[in-house]
Amino acid sequence: MPATATTSRSVLRQAISGQRRQVTLASVLAAGHQGGEALVPVIIGVVIDQAVDGGSAGTLVFWLAVLGVVFAGLSYSYRFAARAAESASLRAAHDLRIAISRRVLHPGGGAENGKLAGELVNIGTSDAQRVGVVNAVLPFGIAALAGVLVSAVALLRISLPLGLLVLLGTPPLLYLAHLIGKPLERRSEAEQERSAHASGVATDLVSGLRVLKGIGAEPAAVARYRDTSQNSLKATLRAARAKAWHDGAVLALTGIFIAIVALVGGNLASSGSISVGDLVAAVGLAQFLLTPFLIFSWVNGELAQGRASASRVADLLTTPAAVEAGDGELPAPATGNVRFTGVSYRSLRGVDLDIPAGQLIGVVAADPAAATDLLDCLGRAGDPAEGKVHVDSVDLSTVDPDRVREVVLVAAHDADLFEGTLAENVGAAMDEALAASAADEVAAALPDGTATVVTERGRSLSGGQRQRVALARALAADAPVLVVHDPTTAVDTVTEAKIATGLARLRQGRTTILVTTSPALLAVTDRVIVLEGGRVTGEGGHAELARDRADYRAAVLS
């Protein structure tokens, strides 16, 4: 817990220091505003004593002019203080969103572990905004303190007991407000966590809506979201109750304190220790003190929520990377020789592979987890617990992940498309890649061909169309080593055969690894490797393995 608290404070400090100039400007202007507000009852008291009691019209006009200047200054200072504070808040939130995006998109990965996509979005939006708001409230907290100090000095001028009462009574009041804010901070953090989880579940369900409808699982999905949403609602209500209790308690403390100040001032006036003007000023200052103390209450509540969000942001930003950067160098250009030596990683157990450069290799894994783990090792999404993965005799665990992925492109079977035209999704060398993946047929069927706009994640296309365009994108990249996972599960057998032929032709002389159980794809490979129980249990030609191994036939031909 102490480490988390330290990192959350660090996030808050960075948010403030990054906008120091704007925060300072807002603080100065807001302090001037609150100081001026405190002077208003003092000036009115002076007007009563010097102008009204003295009967001097000239003095009255003078002090009314002074009041006019003060009010003009108040209007100017508040307007520009609010503008500077809001600017600092928005800029700090923006900077945090950039930092969060960089961490989530870092090639070393790790930030997404244990978090749904919606949770990451919630941290990058709601939590970043709450941390940014600290910059908006801090200047007004400083301004409220300035208002209290000016009031205390003015009360000291009127009466030493009144001034000391405000000066000595304010620190304990602020400390009590801080203690009262602790439950709000805890419940705000819980509220944000539940809200983020609900957002993550909602995003997950929406992205899989077509699948859910296809299998008739809408009731189960609704029930899951209802439970998650109710948990989020309960956490929100608990946080709202904590905020209401916090605001009410602080307001009650403030009211008691101001009543004491007014009572002491009244007693002093009745005993003749202070003049009528001084009494009016003292009562006015006592009433004015409600404003800074209400500001303290508001600031304390926002800071409590900001600290809770800063803790969540800090947890994300300090999540260790799944793989670390290295100083190893892959040759340029890479030839594409791939070798596994005793690799153990999750479900993989002592895998040994040697894939010469330029070969088209098929990998059949009965266990889907083994296929995924193999892809993670090849793309350096994770480093082996034991053994090494080499490309062109260079250990991948020593190479920066960005450089690895320039050489080894892993195309997952569930890869999403981006919002934009089909041409923008595929990129360079589009015509050859579209033909090899049979995605040229997709383009021909679309109203504007390759200029047709594809919606988010390619949802405007059918599953088979989306899969072919994703394969075209992977082929167009022309990586030295291309790893493709089940690229034809949503297409018919005729199209699958066409893709197999086109892929083998386009990738001739380039290292290509097809992790699949498709007989059409396996038939065009130079060699097939069989993974069973996380180990290599056989290799050979597709026809040979289909003839000699019952387990291979079961995996590929069933």
In short:
The chain has a six-stranded mixed sheet, with helices on both faces. A four-stranded antiparallel sheet has the order 2-1-4-5, with helices on one face. The chain has 19 helices and twelve strands. Helix 2 packs antiparallel against helix 8 and helix 13 packs across helix 14.
Explain what the structure shows.
The protein has 558 residues and is an alpha/beta fold. It folds into 2 domains: 1-158 and 298-321, ABC transporter type 1, transmembrane domain (ABC transporter transmembrane region fold, Up-down Bundle); 338-557, Rossmann fold. Helix content is 66%, strand content 11%. It has helices spanning 2-17, 20-52, 57-104, 117-158, 160-207, 209-214, 218-270, 276-288, 290-317, 368-379, 401-407, 422-426, 430-436, 439-445, 463-476, 493-506, 519-522, 542-548, 550-556, and strands spanning 338-345, 348-355, 360-365, 386-391, 394-395, 408-411, 420-421, 453-454, 481-485, 511-515, 527-532, 535-540. The strands form 3 sheets. Strands 6-9-10-3-11-12 form a 6-stranded mixed beta sheet, with helices on both faces. Helix 3 packs antiparallel against helix 4, helix 4 (117-158) packs antiparallel against helix 9 (290-317) and helix 13 (430-436) packs across helix 16. Residues 1-6 have low confidence and may be disordered.
